[in-house]
Amino acid sequence: MFGKPEVLTLASALAGHAAARQMIVARNVANADTPGYRASDLPDFSKAYRENGAAGLRHTRVGHLHADPSPPFSVAERSGKGHVSPNGNSVSLETEMVKAAETRRDHDMALAVYGKSISILRASLGRV
Amino acid sequence: MIESVSPLSVSASGMEAQAARLRHVSENIANADTPGYHRKTIAFDAVIERGEATGQVRAGAVELDDRALTRIFDPGHPLADLDGYYDGSNVDLVVEIADAREAQRSYEANLRMFDQARQMSQSLLELLRR
């Protein structure tokens, strides 16, 4: 009866995605000089969420069949314009910095949306 | 998603490895004029725990560069042979400085990732503080 508002689920899923991506980017940067290391990445949030978030099974009772509420995002090797150095390493620090900035933005946005929704809920309850 | 290591420790391991690399570069530069000195190199390895890569990195074992030592002509040197030559080091200062700059660049990138991870968790905690 009292379901969690969709916007909160969405915001926390975005924050979770940003956190997982931060981990991947940190790993790529740490291994920027490791021979044979291939850069990896997560799919975009919109894609990942459509695949296993919103399109998953909805459930109204705990006993019902439902998909795993927090599916792990699938990590894949970064594709596209990759330049592989002679030692087999495909990390580009510039690309990683761009990804890091995107991650930061997504995370900030998720937290802002979450915080704002909570304060709207509080306002509707008559508290400030 | 449960990770056995945090982004902070991954970035910290990167900084540690780059710092070790920088230390070997400075050892090489300090010994550029030591007769018979072979330059030291290190390779980075991924850390494997329980058969799985944790994403951390560490500096591997020290290896000596086996390039030929430079022959230096100085008949007055105590180590000089009959022709007046002695073996110098095989350190190339240009290579060392390029390596140092690369290590510094990677170190800074790791530091930036560390700071970003810290700020992200900080702002997450800010949500609780209102």
Q: What this model shows, in words?
A:
The complex is a heterodimer of chains A (128) and B (130). By secondary structure, chain A is mainly α. Helix content of chain A is 52%, strand content 3%. Chain A has a two-stranded antiparallel ribbon. In chain A, helix 1 runs antiparallel to helix 3 (93-124). Chain B contains 2 helices and 4 strands; from the N terminus they run αββββα. Chain B has a two-stranded antiparallel ribbon with strand order 1-2. Classes of the chains: A mainly alpha (128), B alpha+beta (130). Chains A and B meet through helix 1 and helix 3 of A and helix 1, strand 1, strand 2 and helix 2 of B.
Features:
heterodimer; A: 128 residues; 3 helices; B: 130 residues; alpha+beta; two-stranded antiparallel ribbon; 4 strands
Layout of secondary structure:
The complex is a heterodimer of chains A (128) and B (130).
Chain A: H1 6-30, E1 40-41, H2 45-54, E2 76-77, H3 93-124
Antiparallel strand pairs in A: 1-2
Chain B: H1 7-30, E1 40-49, E2 52-64, E3 71-73, E4 85-87, H2 93-126
Antiparallel strand pairs in B: 1-2, 3-4
Helix pairs in contact in B: 1-2
